[in-house]
Structures are given as C-alpha cells and as structure tokens.
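lol ok so funny story. i was supposed to be doing the assay writeup but got distracted and ended up predicting the structure for this chain instead. priorities right. anyway since i did it might as well share w the group, maybe its usefull for someone
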Amino acid sequence: MQSLLAIFSSPGPELLQLGPFTLRWYGLLIAFAVFTGLNLSNNLARQRGLPNGLINDLMPILILSAVIGARIYYITFEWRNYKYSFLEMIAIWKGGIAIHGALLAGTLAIYLFCQSKKYPFFDVLDSIIPSVSLGQAIGRWGNFFNNEAFGTPTDLPWKLFIPESFRPSEFTNYEYFHPTFLYESLWNIIVFLFLIYLFRRGAKKKINLPSGGLTSIYLITYSLGRVFIENLRTDPLCLGALPPLCEGGIRIAQLMSILLIVIGFFILSFVYKINEKIPKNIQQKEVQK
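and the output, tada:
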C-alpha cells in the first residue's frame, strides 16, 4: 500500500522567496498558531472573569520568553555543536528549539507578569494552556516541511518519505520513516479537545475543576504521549549518549516528561486540597455569580 505521506512528501521549508525575503512554512505556521491561540485565550479568559486586554498585554512577553527559553534549552543539550560560534547560537531560523524550554520559560514569564499585575496565576495559566496544546499541534507541521522530527524506519501504510540528505548517517539506506511529528500533532489535538471539554464543563459547574486543574491535566496528558512518541525519534536531545537512538544514554524529553507528570499530579492534588479548604458558603456564592 502506498503511503499518502510518501506521495505528498515535504515540498521543502520555503513557501515563497522574493529577492532577499523568504517566507518559510515553519514561520507561517507559528504565526497562525499564535493568532489562533490569542483569540482562543482571550475568549477563555473572559469566561474565567479575567480583565479584558490581559492576554493581549501578556502575549508579546510570553512569545519572546518562550522562544528564548526554547532556544537556550536546546543549545544547553547540544552545546558541542554551538560552543565555537555565537552566530550559530542565535541562528534560530536554522532550527533548534525545544518545547520543554518554551514551557519552562513561558510559565516563569506568566508567573512574573501575574505577580506584577496582581492577577490570579492559575486562572491565567488555565486560560492559556489549551492554546498551547493547539499551537503545538499546528507547529508540529513545520517539522514536516523541514524534514525533521521523524522517527525510525518503518513500512507502515502511513510511512513518511525522507530525502537522503536529511537522513541520519545510520539510516541512509532507508527511505521511509515514522512521521513522529504527525503522531505528536494528533496527540496534541486530542489533548486540546479534552482540555476544552473540561474547561466548558467546569465553567458550567458540572464538574469540580478548581483553578490550576486544567494546567495540571495538560502536563499529565501531553507528557504521557510524549514519553512514548519520543522513543521513536531519531533526533532526540540526549544525556550520556548521542543521536540517533541515544543508546546507553537518556532521552532528555522523556526524562522531562516524567518530571512534568509528577509535577502535574502534585499540582492537581494541591489545588483540590486548597479548594476543599474554602468555606462552603464562599463556594456557593462563587457558583451563583
């Protein structure tokens, strides 16, 4: 059976070039993800009773910190490839970012923003986190156009053709690989839909979902999928070994995902315990509002 992804293999990273100006698919997808996420988060923030304009004020800070954090995180674990050139460190358009770095730096930026503006941290996080999952689902298709973030060789019907110049040296004789970017994109869509379902049920008081609950559920569900998908990747960040398979070493994304699952369960336990300590008459007043 011919693979659809093999038939429609990546046309390359560049969508349009006019003189010195180059429009890349990855940049276009990220811009679309930001625009979509901004509108969605504004809507969710209003439903949480947060001030109008909060998300608009936060978004530039959040985007900048997430990009810087994602780049620093990646360079930290790929230092051998960047230690001799500062220009290569800042050449983010050549690729080399990590979602876990973006999550860490973005969360810190949101916390500092909320502290300075006296906004409820977990409410703001819960209003943004579904957009993060949706943005990941959209952004992963940038990996398709860049011929990156693919998995080990496979003959499955949905196998992905990778040009020889993009294959790891160990797999130059193979043509078709697991489309791990697609696996993660689909998983993020499932997580996104689940988060929106929980958000709406919580907003209607049909389930008890305290502030921070949605964020913790994202950390758990996304990370569970990443643990399994990462095991197929041929380009992981490794500790104690080198790609493509990290043999004898640790895949950093798997380690971080397990840590985030633990953190997610801790936050979930914490916010439910805090919610139980709120006097019932105050909870009833909040429901009536």
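Residues 279-289 have pLDDT under 50 and may be disordered. Residues 4-276 form one domain.
back to the writeup now i swear
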